[in-house]
Amino acid sequence: MTRVDTDFKDRVYELVGQIPKGRLMTYGQVAALCGAAWAAWEVGQIAHRGPKDLPWQRVVNKQGGLARSYTWGGFEGHKRSLETEDIEVSKDYRVNLDKYLWNPHL
DNA sequence: CCGTTGACCCTTC
DNA sequence: AGAAGGGCCAACG
Predict the structure, then answer these.
(1) For A19-73, where are the alpha helices, taking DSSP H only?
(2) pTM
């Protein structure tokens, strides 16, 4: 039902690849920008399947927290990746979305 | 507050 | 080669 075009998948790759260093985006935001706000979770699934060439570490949940199970190292691996991007990660594995949240329109 | 549902694609048996 | 299950979230009741 209302299955999205394969473009959605391709758009996610493009969008994530366009996220600049030091910036973060939420799954719901990425999905919405790709034209599938109902697929916020799918973005995560795509991340799991998608090419690890993309900076999925710059994509976090709406709580500003890291992914539940970072495929390439879990929370710790995700946290390290973010810190490598000059992104400050709290000890609770959370980031300041208000400070790092990025929008492609900018 | 907590639990369930949802439009998917890929991996493994 | 065919079929079934799993899996980086978010919103609603």
Answers:
(1) 27-33, 40-49
(2) 0.92
